Amino acid sequence: MSKILMVVTAADSLTLADGSAHPTGFWAEELVVAHRELTAAGHDVVIATPAGRVPPVDPGSLNAEVVGDADRAEEFRAYLDAIRAELDHPATLGDLSAADFAAVVLPGGHGPMADLAFDEDLGRILVEADANAALIAPFCHGPAGLLSAKALDGGFVFAGRTLTAFSDEEEATGGLGENTPWLVAATLRERGAVVENSAPWTSHVVRDGNLISGQNPQSSEAVTRALIEVLGD
User: d(Cα 207, Cα 79) in Å, to the nearest integer?
Assistant: First the structure.
């Protein structure tokens, strides 16, 4: 089967518009669903972070009221505990080459807005992966990481590409609201991407060639299934 690179944020806080620090990290459901389904399909998933730092889970993503109920929160917590060795010893992005992977997966949480969006090693990997037609699958706030991919002339590698990401409306109504330091979907549009969003909090997946993106946590399963299907073709 295929070797998959899962790029995870190592940021545990995000500076908000008012200057305060907001606890963050990766969103549990997104990492759990993608990792669980990919490994169940027989793929080898390598978790990597900037500088090999241990990725923190966003505390809100394990809050029963936020994720829907206590059983779901416990399901996510139990799975993270089961892969604790992988999470505690991630690969270092700077040591990796896109040539070694069939796909790059970027789950969200607000953390990518603090580090992955500006990470030069991730940018290099994404440029290489896109040039090699490797699959690239970001979802929710994970598409913030795409902003790190710059062409030799400084342009955005994914300008003109069609994708989806956590919508401005979702950020306003269920995210950080007016205190968000910047909007992922709006910024991607400003950089030249064609961002297509569906109704807030509904599963929505967009494919443009080797780019398979999901809008929100509700899209986690659908974007992973789409990735597995393409890997199997």
Answer: 28
- What pLDDT was estimated at residue 96? 98
- Give CA separation, 124 vs 4, 65, 121, 145, 180, in Å: 16, 38, 5, 11, 27
SS3 call for 1: coil
CATH fold of the domain at 3-232: Rossmann fold (3.40.50)
The four Cα atoms 16, 214, 151, 120 give a dihedral, to 10 degrees, of 50
Which pLDDT score is estimated for 233? 80
Taking 90 as the threshold, does the pLDDT of residue 7 lie above it? Answer: yes
Cα–Cα separations (whole angstroms), residue 43 to 17, 37, 152, 183: 40, 9, 33, 33
* Residue spans per domain, the chain: 3-232
Secondary structure (H, E, C), 148-199: HCECCCCCECCCCCEECCCCHHHHHHHCCHHHCCCCHHHHHHHCCCEECCCC
Half-sphere exposure of 167 (CA within 13 A, CB side): 16
Count of all residues that appear for the chain in the document = 233
Q: What is the DSSP letter of 26?
A: B
Q: Is the confidence at residue 23, as pLDDT, over 90?
A: yes
Q: Is 128 helix (H, G, I), strand (E, B) or coil?
A: helix
> How far apart, in whole angstroms, are the C-alpha atoms of residue 72 and residue 228?
23
Give pLDDT tens digits for 74-99.
999 999 999 999 999 999 999 999 99
What pLDDT is stored for residue 157 in this prediction?
98
